[in-house]
Design goal:
Elements: H1 38-50, H2 61-65, E1 73-75, H3 92-112, H4 122-147, H5 170-185, E2 190-191, E3 199-200, H6 208-223, H7 232-245, H8 255-263, E4 272-276, E5 313-315, H9 317-322, H10 342-345, E6 349-352, E7 357-360, E8 391-395, H11 396-411, H12 417-427, H13 449-464, H14 470-476, H15 480-493, H16 502-506, H17 518-523
Parallel strand pairs: 2-3
Antiparallel strand pairs: 1-5, 4-8, 6-7
Helix pairs in contact: 1-3, 1-4, 3-4, 4-5, 4-6, 5-6, 6-7, 6-11, 7-11, 11-12, 11-13
Protein name: RagB/SusD family nutrient uptake outer membrane protein
Family: Belongs to the SusD family.
Pfam families: SusD-like_3 (PF14322), SusD_RagB (PF07980)
Length: about 525
């Protein structure tokens, strides 16, 4: 049984209203909850973490409703809804996402308002404060990168004189995110094997490596669209290398085992640095499950023993074609790939009937998301529509590819090859005790700066497909709408049909940001709407 934040569900005691909800009526006073002991603060901190696993964040809305349609993945429902960029300011998923993030901010502020004034010993005080600072910063990062300018709330205590809070320019929000994360980096614990007595040995808790890796991500975003502050590439490289040079992390030699571990309730903090914890099967009290795996995605089957899945999420033909073919392969109609990630991420079979019979799927446009496979789950009985499998927020492979990207932008590819090639060698099975193709050359070399930049983009697609990063990557690279429109032409010329490009058809300039929710604009008269909504 994996180590859990055993207290996390006690967050239910804190409530689920957003930080804006408590401003619906004008307060005359506000009493901060009484936090005195370490246990009090740990229970409060559980409520801050709890937002990550909420259905309105990683449990469903973020990976599925807001990120499922790109040039490498799509949902096969054919529905005209938020999954294909049809949404406005009243869209429930957009509103719920906003509320969840602000609820996380509010819960973190409850801790930060009082923790410095307590008599706690320095070590637990630092750990608690560091995690609260980082989580608040992460929620603000998700808000500013998706909604643009946003209101900032730096205290849980509302002011009766400031009911209408204007949007803070995004550059100022990013500066706050960085400031909070830099302070948190000095306060939280290292992962197991570090130089401190108190260490983190499971990915459900924020560690120093998690803070450093997410700092690299934040700086890469600041270097890209819309801020375009290219000086931040140096900061991104600095923090990615801080994780690498710590010596505390390494790639799991077997790419498939990374995801089997999520199903089997096992941690591997060397590879999976920070992850969302899901658990339970809707039976009993201890529950935090995801709809993204099961009801939405997975290998299609009605067999409850295997783990039912609607198989609604597929990879595109473009993603399939990004994986290098083995020229010596004799399999038909689709050749094998040197890249072992392909047939794991894009399941080459479905299950037919009950009990499910593994049946080949040779349509490269209709392969199910196979990254998380319910057949490996250990929780029993398996729920018909939800899954307890954890979801990665930061993997070590991401750290390596961020280092490669930043190094190339700063100095060209000469010193960036080792980072990307380490990821590629694992992908080609060369880190396994017995590589299936030991003589294959996985390394890139001899590329121009532009060619290397494209190689990183393609490598991120191969490595992180279905992990809710492609849309945000395309946006920060600065040509989201253009890339999505170009994909239509490519897809229809390469075996795709209209159902495969439905999301791309609906994308326009407004979709670079989400709309500010109507509900909050009705409460906060200082809010303005994003362009196009």
């Amino acid at each position: 049984m994996m180590m859990r934040f055993t207290y996390i569900l006690i967050a239910l005691l804190i409530g689920t209203s957003s930080c804006k909800d408590f401003l619906d009526t004008k307060p005359t006073d506000f009493v901060t909850p009484s936090y005195e002991t370490v246990n009090d603060f740990e229970l409060a901190l559980a409520g801050v973490y709890d937002i990550l696993g909420n259905r309105t964040f990683y449990g469903d809305v973020w990976p599925y409703w807001l990120n499922v349609s790109t040039d490498i993945e799509y949902t096969n429902t054919g529905s005209a809804n938020a999954t294909v960029y049809i949404y406005g300011p009243a869209e429930a998923n957009v509103t719920d996402f906003w509320k969840a993030l602000y609820t996380g901010v509010y819960r973190a502020n409850l801790i930060l308002d009082v923790v410095d004034g307590t008599d706690l010993d320095e070590d637990p005080k630092n750990r608690i404060k560091g995690q609260a600072l980082f989580l608040r910063a992460y929620y603000y990062f998700m808000l500013v990168s998706n909604y643009g300018d946003i209101p900032l709330y730096l205290s849980a205590k509302p002011s009766i004189n400031e009911m209408d809070v204007p949007r803070t320019p995004m550059k100022e929000v990013y500066n706050l995110v960085v400031t909070d994360m830099l302070e948190a980096e000095q306060l939280v614990d290292e992962v197991e094997g570090g130089n401190t007595e108190k260490t983190v040995n499971f990915g459900g808790r924020v560690s120093r490596s998690a803070v450093q890796g997410v700092l690299a991500r934040v700086y890469l975003k600041m270097a890209g669209y819309p801020l375009m502050d290219q000086s931040k590439y140096a900061d991104a490289l600095k923090w990615a290398l801080a994780v690498k040079n710590s010596g505390l992390h390494s790639l799991n030699p077997d790419y498939t085992d990374v995801f089997i571990k999520y199903a089997r309730d096992e941690y591997d903090i060397r590879e999976s640095i920070w992850e969302v914890e899901f658990y339970g099967n809707t039976q009993g009290a201890m529950q935090e499950y995801t709809y993204y795996i099961g009801a939405r995605g997975g290998i299609r089957t009605q067999d409850a023993e295997l783990g039912r899945s609607g198989g609604l999420i597929n990879g595109s033909g473009k993603l399939f074609d990004l994986y290098e073919l083995d020229p010596n392969s004799t399999t038909v109609p689709l050749k094998d790939s040197y890249d072992l990630r392909r047939d794991w991420n894009l399941a080459p079979y479905t299950y037919v009937g009950t009990p499910g019979v593994k049946t080949p799927n040779n349509d490269r446009w209709r392969r199910n998301m196979g990254k998380w496979r319910r057949e490996y789950e250990v929780v029993s009985p398996k729920d018909i529509s939800t899954s307890p499998q954890n979801f990665p927020i930061l993997r070590y492979a991401d750290v390596l590819l961020m280092a490669a990207e930043a190094e190339n932008e700063l100095n060209g590819p000469v010193n960036a090859y080792p980072y990307i090639n380490e990821v590629r060698r694992r992908a080609y099975g060369l880190l396994l005790p017995q590589p299936p193709n030991p003589n294959v050359n996985a390394d890139l070399m001899g590329l121009s700066k532009d060619e290397f930049r494209q190689a990183v983009k393609d490598e991120r697609a191969r490595e992180f497909c279905f992990e809710a990063s492609r849309r945000t990557d395309l946006i920060r690279w600065g040509n989201f709408v253009g890339d999505m429109k170009a994909y239509i032409t490519w897809a229809l010329a390469n075996g795709g049909v209209e159902g495969h490009v439905l999301g791309s058809r609906n994308v326009s300039d407004r979709n670079v940001l989400l709309p500010i929710p109507t509900y909050d604009m009705s409460l906060n008269k200082a809010l303005t709407q994003n362009p196009g909504y």
